[in-house]
Amino acid sequence: MGVSEEEESSLLLDEKLIRFMDQLESLEEKRATLNSLIEQGWFSMSKARYSMGNKQVSALQYASEIEPLVCVNDRTQDNGEVQFCTERPTQKSSKESAKDLPIEDVGPQEEGVRRRNKPKKDIREKEASEDASSKKAPEANPVRKSDHDPQQDPLKWFGILVPQSLKQAQSSFKQVIELSAEIATLQIAVLNTRQELKDCLKNKHTLQKKGSATESR
């Protein structure tokens, strides 16, 4: 026995309604987990500030150049839905970053080749002037420290031996980034399913009106 258009529309409507409710339930759970991770991260951050001091865990320790360790990208799937995902950019090794740094010559440079036949007095005076200039050269041209790696682990900004609470805060906020991308994707899916549900409901009402009009005849 074949299924009428009205029954088929009702089955499709029920299917989309069940999917819509499942998506809402999953979205509610992920939002609760997100809020819990944010609270846990800030609580761990406050514990780290209490143990290390407010000034030791603040924006004062940020590097001069900062590059993101995680990027959030959006992708459009074949069905037209948008999916958000997190990606970690490739990090340069220490050797590659050292190659990019400019090489500076530090210290006095010889102006030219000295002549052989010179009086001993002139030679001694020139050597004394060179020694004096070599002592002053490091003060005038100090050796520049190696530039800070912008993709370094942010925990190293606050010292080598950081408390466990600061590591826990970093772990919580890393999970927050991953979960935020999932929530954004799920929110778009909920909106799309909601629109499909409205279209199916409108189609069902149209079929019901046609059926009632046919029966009245």
UniProtKB/TrEMBL annotation:
Q: Could you tell me where this protein is found in the cell? A: Cytoplasmic vesicle, COPI-coated vesicle; Endoplasmic reticulum-Golgi intermediate compartment; Endosome; Lysosome
- UniProt lists compositionally biased (Basic and acidic residues) regions at 89-102, 120-151
**A cellular-component GO term for this protein:** lysosome
Where does it primarily localize? Answer: cytoplasm
Listed A to Z, the keywords are: Coiled coil, Cytoplasmic vesicle, Endoplasmic reticulum, Endosome, Lysosome
Query: What GO molecular function annotation could you give as one example from this UniProt entry?
Result: unfolded protein binding
Q: Example GO biological process term?
A: vacuolar proton-transporting V-type ATPase complex assembly
InterPro entries with a match to the protein in the record: Vma22/CCDC115
Q: Which Pfam families match?
A: Vma22_CCDC115
Q: Where is this region: Disordered?
A: 82-154
Q: Which domain of life is it from?
A: Eukaryota
Task: State how it assembles.
Answer: Accessory component of the multisubunit proton-transporting vacuolar (V)-ATPase protein pump.
Q: What is this protein called?
A: Vacuolar ATPase assembly protein VMA22
Which species is listed as the source?
Stegastes partitus (bicolor damselfish)
Annotated gene: vma22
